[in-house]
Write a structure and sequence with these properties.
Length: 257
């Protein structure tokens, strides 16, 4: 499937290509993916990016803010040819199984403003740092360092470090500015995280039992992040692609017809 650059969270800001191509995984792909997918979140993130880049090398030039959306699209196109899928979530309050048909139009994200995409400066520990949204290629450079030394294992923190241009010249100083941030430095970093990453909105669901009799504004919503939605590829594929009765037919039955 082709996804127009303008339909990505970054709106394709500055991209030299008009679209990104994502292919559904084959049976072999899914088996290989499940056999080799790393457990730790850092390596898994990198592993998913490599699958995307194999579909379209231009993905290396995409901003990290677009990657979370593309990772989900890769899974969605694998699970369902019409890009809709049945999702099931357990209500944390009453335990009821909630079902929802999720269509591509239900996947919402906040698009980034060109002013934001042009970068910013942030003051941390009294120093001014230049901030630029990292592409996959730029993020890789920072990421490799952390994969090797494992000093920091939280993906969000590494993404924030990768946001600061000065990392390439003064890695220890930038790392310290992020990791030992206090007070309003923390607030600034959280604001940057919202501006440059985490652009895909969680899916909202409502439990009809827990919300029974409540007015619309009183309803309590349940939010599910898109990362949580595909837990078991084969289960999702078989749920979303039911067989027709003529898909598999037994020879002995055919002969007696
Ligand atoms: Zn409930």
């Amino acid at each position: 499937m082709n996804i127009l650059s303008s339909q990505l969270p970054s709106e394709g800001f500055g991209y030299p290509f008009a679209a990104i191509n994502i292919k559904p995984m084959t049976f072999l792909d899914v088996v290989e993916y499940l056999e080799s997918v790393p457990k730790d979140p850092l390596s898994k993130y990198l592993y998913d990016i490599n699958w995307l880049v194999a579909d379209d090398p231009n993905i290396k030039k995409c901003y990290i803010m677009d990657i979370d959306y593309l990772r989900f699209m890769k899974k969605l196109t694998t699970v369902s040819p019409d890009l809709s899928m049945e999702i099931t979530v357990t209500c944390p309050d009453c335990g009821k199984t909630l079902k929802k048909k999720l269509r591509i139009v239900d996947i919402m994200f906040k698009t980034a403003d060109p002013i934001v995409m042009n970068g910013a400066v942030v003051k941390l520990k009294g120093r001014t740092y230049s901030v630029t949204p990292p592409t996959v290629e730029e993020f890789h450079k920072v990421f490799q360092k952390y994969l090797k030394f494992r000093k920091v294992s939280n993906l969000d923190l590494i993404k924030l470090i990768a946001l600061i241009d000065d990392f390439y010249d003064r890695p220890n100083e930038v790392e310290d500015a992020v990791l030992s941030a206090t007070h309003d430095d923390i607030t600034a970093l959280l604001a940057l995280k919202d501006l440059y990453f985490n652009r895909v909105e969680p899916v909202k669901m409502y439990c009809d039992i827990c919300n029974n009799g409540l007015k619309k504004e009183e309803r309590r919503e349940l939010t599910v992040s898109i990362d949580e939605l595909i837990v078991d590829f084969f289960r999702e594929i078989t749920i979303n692609n039911q067989l027709d009765e003529d898909k598999i037919q037994f020879k002995q039955v055919l002969q007696t017809r």
